[in-house]
Amino acid sequence: MVKVQRGVCEIYINHLIKDNIDFFLLRQSKNWDFLGLCIGEEGDGKTTLIQQLALYMDGNITLDNCVFSVEQFNKAVDTLPKGSAIIWDESDELDATQLRKVLLAVKRKFKRIRDRNFKIWLITPTFFDLNKYFIMHRIQCLIRVTADGLNRGYAYFYTKDRMRNLYLKGKKEWDVYCVRSNFSFNFTKIPKGFPIDQEAYDVKKHEAADEITDELETSSQKIARYRKECVKRYYRQIKQLYKSKPRQKDAAYIFGVERQTISTDIQEWSNAEVSADIDVKNSNSEVTNVTTD
Q: What is the dihedral of CA 117, 123, 129, 131, to 10 degrees?
């Protein structure tokens, strides 16, 4: 371990990791961009490690350098000083759809990232969900964090070549062990005097995750409503053209859902139509009674 002083904070970094980070910093000084990736299971220590590496790369990081959504990332890239490190920590609970949004946001900002010499770290629980373009052409290194039983602080480093090889060989079976890392190393807990308040970090992360989850649920509801309306129109048109109802199995295949989903959709709008029909009949009955009286 090498001791590094950053302000009032002392951090300890494995010498092999330090050598590689120093190389990336040298490349960046010659106008190459840096995008690093850290993966690992929930709670294994991804954030603990990357925060310390980011502090080594940028001694002025604060909570403003830590982002958890597209909006926060865009703001950081547009407002942070040149040479800043940015940590994008994706929530372990979010899905591959959100990860694609993350990568798209990074891709759109690549020119400014290079012009401003930003150092970007992506933290995500998965590896093989990533777009092949980023693995092959953008990400400079991979760090896989793991735990040994109840003990945290273990990680594996992959250079660009080995990371690419791992992606190509392991994607089919999602096997992160099929290619050996360049080396393994240990890392420490967050030291005293660290410039990022960990409680504030967790609050910011959870708030962003809640907002994204609400957004995803809203999108799913919109898709479900649209599908139900399409199923309804489909059934009516088939019945009108062929004088018979289509099979639920065929409808499920057409709309790319389970047969039970189609059955539920039919039941919902059928009940709604029956209810509306009853209301109309009751209304007509009331009008007739008033006239008779």
A: 0
Relative to beta strand 151-158, strand 183-186 is antiparallel
The Cα 69–Cα 55 span in angstroms is 21
Q: How far is CA 109 from CA 28, 34, 127, 212, in A?
A: 16, 13, 21, 20
Instruction: Enter the tokens of residue 114.
Output: 């290079």
Please state, for a pLDDT cut of 70, what percent of the chain lies above it: 87
pTM score, two decimals?
0.73
Q: What is the pLDDT of residues 47-72, one digit of tens each?
A: 999 999 999 999 999 999 999 988 99
pLDDT of residue 241: 83
Asked whether 129 and 99 are in contact (CB, 8 A), the reply is: yes
Ranges assigned E (strand) in the chain: 2-6, 9-13, 34-39, 66-67, 85-89, 119-124, 141-148, 151-158, 183-186
**217-251 burial by CB neighbour count: b if 16+ within 10 A, else e?**
eeeeeeeeeebbeebbebbeebeeeeeeebebeeb
Contact between 53 and 44 under an 8 Å Cβ cutoff? The reply is: no
The superfamily CATH assigns to domain 2-196 is: P-loop containing nucleotide triphosphate hydrolases (3.40.50.300)
pLDDT digits (tens, 9 = 90+) for 123-154: 998 899 888 888 999 999 999 999 999 899 99
* Tokens 């970090």 belong to residue: 201
Q: Which is higher by pLDDT, 228 or 204?
A: 204
Q: What is the dihedral of CA 23, 124, 50, 68, to 10 degrees?
A: 110
